[in-house]
């Protein structure tokens, strides 16, 4: 009876979500029974005993595995396919979304986000595993996370992946054809993923919520066409057009060059959400005047990276200014600061990480200057985390981290525990990559069981601040400030 009630409770969620009507209930029940490995049914009173979708998911997955329906290593795919039973079809979600949008953009996104969490497309329980804390600096509070949400790959999956035939469908993990895709050994489950169709400046776009969200209502805006990312006037126009539709969200783009760009440069996309990042809270270090653009207020942001903030109610003037600044930056060099726009083989090295938001009825556009040059001293990037910081962070500094939210690798959870033991002079297995750092920490203070975790976290925050400083093209010192001044003068020519 418990099995029947659990199935009925799950069907009731499908009814509540308007996936089906009462006329469809027997049909969907039979589909679900087969999916779970059952061929019998006893009627219940139809009322719900349990409404928590994740609790029901756990119970039904247990029953299915007990019936031998799927091997344990395939749980990711089976789980998504199970939750698809209570997920409305794309056209239904889009219709409801845009109906709610007529009431307010906030109601529309709240509906979609709540649904994404309910059907476990946004994996709230996995996200809750992340370690997160704030770190006070001279730039304000940085946000530090050790990302534990993405599950480690099952050894059986890794072994099976070697024998899987290569396929090019979907073309990448950001393509629209992922919507409803079951997944495969070397590709994530997407059966319960849904996207909202929208338009930006006459182009077709879609947005979905990120499964392993790094911040509140973390959305990914995807171009319907599989084409490379590009930072240009069109990109700036798209960010501002998105704000016109969803003024309660921020939106930004990774840079479009290797080393300083995101992990997927082959598909045009942006990231948005309902979160005020540390960089957005940062004040101006210095106001700047642009004689060509009198309607724009501008300034250098007090931030470890090199950021110019533009503010205006005039969207067209903001577009003209940001485009001109980008184009001039793409051709600007200051070799006294190792800033070089184009290499001898005519390769471009300069781009911008742009972030847009609405504040008090005005458009606010932050332009973060990026340079992806390398050198013999810094083969991974001159304006990239330097080698002494690689024991903590070696990966690219993308959009989210530019804004002050560190996404640190999961290995650090265990590795930092060993660092803490080392600082307490306890038996430990500290990795060699951390030893020099740990020795420096040991010389700086007395450690006890009560304070060691907090002190290591603060030291970790200091490393992230240095990571951002390394990525800044105009350093936060006297030489860097003078270099920034020269660049501003160049912009005003």
Structural description of this entry:
It is found in: Cytoplasm. The protein is of the alpha+beta class and 493 residues long. It has two domains: 2-118, no CATH class; 129-405 and 474-491, HIT family, subunit A (2-Layer Sandwich). It is built from 16 helices and 13 strands. A hairpin with a 2-residue loop joins β1 (131-137) and β2 (140-146). α13 (411-423) packs across α14. The longest helix has 20 residues, at 452-471. Residues 157-162 have low confidence and may be disordered.
Give a brief outline of the structure.
With 493 residues, the protein is an alpha+beta fold. The protein contains 16 helices and 13 strands.
Count, helices: 16
Question: In CATH, what is the class of the largest domain?
Answer: Alpha Beta
Q: Main beta sheet, described? A: 10 strands, antiparallel
- Quick one: overall form? globular
What distance separates the N and C termini?
79 Å
Based on DSSP secondary structure assignment, what is the total number of beta strands?
13
Computed CA radius of gyration, to the nearest angstrom: 25 Å
Number of self-contained structural domains: 2
Report strand order across the widest sheet. Answer: 3-4-5-7-6-11-12-10-9-8
Low-confidence regions? 157-162
The CATH topology of the largest domain turns out to be HIT family, subunit A
Strand fraction equals 15-25%
Mean pLDDT: 94
User: Helical percent range?
Assistant: 25-40%
Reported CATH architecture of the largest domain: 2-Layer Sandwich
Give me the secondary-structure category: alpha+beta
């Amino acid at each position: 009876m418990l099995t029947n009630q659990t199935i009925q409770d799950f069907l009731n969620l499908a009814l509540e979500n308007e996936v089906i009507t009462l006329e469809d209930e027997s049909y969907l029940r039979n589909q679900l029974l087969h999916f779970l490995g059952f061929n019998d049914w006893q009627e219940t009173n139809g009322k719900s005993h349990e409404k928590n979708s994740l609790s029901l998911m756990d119970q039904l997955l247990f029953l299915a595995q007990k019936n031998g329906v799927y091997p344990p290593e395939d749980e990711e795919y089976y789980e998504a396919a199970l939750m698809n039973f209570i997920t409305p079809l794309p056209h239904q979600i889009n219709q409801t979304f845009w109906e709610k949008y007529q009431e307010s953009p906030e109601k529309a996104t709240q509906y979609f986000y709540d649904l994404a969490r309910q059907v476990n497309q946004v994996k709230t329980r996995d996200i809750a595993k992340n370690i997160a804390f704030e770190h006070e600096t001279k730039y304000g509070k940085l946000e530090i996370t050790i990302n534990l949400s993405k599950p480690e790959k099952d050894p059986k999956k890794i072994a099976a992946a070697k024998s899987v035939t290569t396929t090019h469908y979907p073309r990448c993990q950001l393509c629209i054809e992922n919507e409803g895709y079951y997944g495969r050994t070397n590709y994530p489950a997407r059966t319960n993923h849904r996207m909202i169709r929208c338009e930006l400046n006459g182009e077709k776009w879609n947005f979905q919520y990120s499964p392993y969200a790094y911040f509140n209502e973390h959305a990914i805006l995807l171009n319907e066409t599989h084409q490379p990312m590009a930072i240009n006037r069109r990109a700036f126009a798209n960010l501002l057009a998105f704000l016109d539709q969803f003024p309660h969200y921020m939106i930004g783009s990774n840079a479009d060059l290797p080393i300083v760009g995101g992990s997927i440069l082959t598909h045009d996309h942006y990231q948005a959400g309902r979160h005020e990042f540390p960089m957005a809270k940062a004040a101006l270090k210095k106001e700047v005047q642009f004689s060509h653009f009198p309607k724009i207020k501008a300034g250098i942001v007090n931030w470890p990276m090199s950021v110019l903030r533009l503010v205006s109610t005039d969207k067209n003037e903001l577009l003209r200014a940001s485009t001109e600044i980008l184009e001039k930056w793409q051709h600007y060099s200051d070799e006294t600061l190792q800033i070089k726009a184009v290499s001898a083989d005519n390769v471009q090295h300069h781009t911008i990480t742009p972030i847009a938001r609405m504040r008090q009825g005005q458009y606010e556009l932050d332009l973060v200057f990026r340079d992806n040059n390398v050198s013999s001293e810094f083969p991974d990037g001159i304006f990239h985390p330097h080698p002494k910081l690689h024991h903590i962070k070696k990966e690219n500094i993308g959009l989210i981290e530019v804004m002050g939210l560190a996404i640190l690798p999961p290995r650090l959870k265990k590795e930092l525990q060993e660092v803490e033991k080392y600082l307490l002079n306890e038996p430990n297995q500290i990795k060699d990559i951390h030893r020099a750092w740990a020795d420096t920490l040991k010389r700086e203070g007395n450690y006890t069981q009560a304070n060691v975790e907090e002190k290591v976290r603060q030291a970790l925050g200091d490393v992230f601040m240095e990571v951002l400083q390394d990525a800044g093209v105009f350093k936060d010192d006297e030489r860097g400030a003078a270099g920034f001044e020269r660049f501003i003068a160049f912009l005003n020519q």
